Amino acid sequence: MTHTEGAFLAILRDALHETPPADPGLAPGEWQGLFQLAEAHKLLPPILDAAWSLPSCRAALRPAGRPDPKPPPPASVGRPDPRPPSPVGADAPIGPPAPPAPAGRPDPRPPSPPPVGADAHIGPSASPVQSLPLEGKVSPQATDEVVPRQTANVPGSSDWQSHALQQLTSQALRENDFLNLILGLRARGLEPVLLKGAVCRALWPKPLLRSSEDEDLLIPPGSGPAYHAAMLELGMTPYEPEGDLNRSTELCYYKRDSSLFVELNSCFFDPDSEILRPFNEALAGAADRAVPIRIQDVSLQTLASTDHLLFLILHAFKHFLYGGFGLRVAADVCLYARQYAEEIDFARVLGACAENRCDCFTAAILRIGERHLGLPVPEAFALPAVDETALLADILDAGLHGEDIDRIHSANYTLGAVENRNSGRSVSGLRRALFPERSSLTPRYPWLEKRPWLLPAAWALRAGSYLKNRGKYGHENPVASMRLGKERVELLRAYGVIDRK
């Protein structure tokens, strides 16, 4: 672990416990690296908010020739607004225009300069600000392209403050739009179950500093058409207009004048995936056990505590198998286990994890929480033989959801290793990387479902997209994906996901 990574973990720990951080003694250039790491994990607002008290941090943010900015007042930044959200359909807040949209998300508005100056600090906004453009999704017009985790709006030097404040204000307005949407759905007789998102934000000392790129809702199977009609009435736009409402298990929508992005799921995990299908079995009946929760005076339905922790773990495990996940995901798991410890049936969670061969993986996440974030490990997961070091290194390298293009393509190795474990087959990782099976390409190329003989054409299109993205984002050659894939397969062996040789 580098000095910068250690400082990142220490500041996040102090932010979670609301204790003054110790000065890590970073040079200005190292602070820039720390902020880049925080942004990759979508933790820039809480990190900058906690580190602001450190003179070396403010010096690293100060433009040349400017005096040291004054520290922010001790305000409750990021705490939920105690007032109920404005009525559905109310006019959007009036304020400075939003900055241009990051690459990869639709935004009909013309670009305009950021509303916040370089000297601004994390703190209460003097005036409301419009919702920011959507972040982190690939536009429907560019579905063959992969957007890496650090391609858009990466600030430099003094711009980190503005960037963090924009994320904060965007999250506040996004949550308001989301709660209005829930009220609108309820008025139409629809009551979805909230997953992750606002539930995880509520675990953090300053919830709005923990942003969410999208909001996940669980809906009953077969209710897609009813929800689709309601979403359109409420001003939401389908992300994939040609999607099959009756067959699709995931319907996505965005709001054109907002940064709100919502996923409606009729199933926790893809039921057509050989790897993910058993995860649904571990959560059978969870929707029937849903419980109420209040977010800013709005009552919603969410999973019961045991089910929700298990879902968070399996969601992290899914990303681990595909390309990796970041520290925010790990922190959510650890914070949830601490917050609801008295209500959670940890024996049931451990049993379900063991059945899906992610018990050691989960124990390693909770060990990271104990040793690096000051969060307790539940007794059921205090497995003495588990070493969290390798998983922590993978988490720090992955960013939020392992969206680096090399990690995305390395998933051919990790997924192949798990499928081989389940089926007893042995398929070369290189062969799978170059010529994946039709089932793994059908979500990307739906025409394969009716025209399986076009599989070679899909291989060619995929290879062309791969080369185009590598050229566009300047990554190394495909050998890096193969090497990373083999390394991550060894990580699966280390945590018992697949058998050791």
Structure explained in plain terms:
Among the domains are: 1-63, no CATH class; 405-494, no CATH class. It has helices spanning 3-17, 28-40, 44-51, 55-61, 159-187, 198-201, 224-233, 277-282, 305-322, 327-339, 346-355, 359-373, 389-398, 405-423, 429-434, 438-441, 455-473, 479-494; strands at residues 193-195, 215-218, 236-238, 250-255, 261-265, 291-295, 298-302. Helix 10 packs across helix 12 (359-373). 44% of the residues lie in helices and 6% in strands. The protein is globular and about 60 Å long. The protein has a seven-stranded mixed beta sheet with strand order 3-4-5-2-1-7-6.
**Sheet/helix structural class:** alpha/beta
Strand order of the largest sheet: 3-4-5-2-1-7-6
SS field, number of helical segments:
18
Order of helices and strands: HHHHHEHEHEEEHEEHHHHHHHHHH
Number of strands: 7
Tell me, briefly, the overall form: globular
Determine the N-to-C terminus distance.
Answer: 28 Å
Query: Fraction of residues in helices?
Result: 40-55%
Average pLDDT, all residues: 77
> Could you give a short account of the major beta sheet?
7 strands, mixed
Strand content: 5-15%
The radius of gyration computed from the alpha-carbon positions, rounded to a whole number of angstroms, is 22 Å
Would you kindly provide a brief summary of this structure?
With 501 residues, the protein is an alpha/beta fold. Helix content is 44%, strand content 6%.
Topology:
Blueprint (H helix, E strand, L loop, with lengths): L2 H15 L10 H13 L3 H8 L3 H7 L97 H29 L5 E3 L2 H4 L13 E4 L5 H10 L2 E3 L11 E6 L5 E5 L11 H6 L8 E5 L2 E5 L2 H18 L4 H13 L6 H10 L3 H15 L15 H10 L6 H19 L5 H6 L3 H4 L13 H19 L5 H16 L7
Parallel strand pairs: 1-7, 2-5
Antiparallel strand pairs: 1-2, 3-4, 4-5, 6-7
Helix pairs in contact: 1-2, 1-3, 2-3, 2-4, 9-10, 9-11, 10-12, 14-18
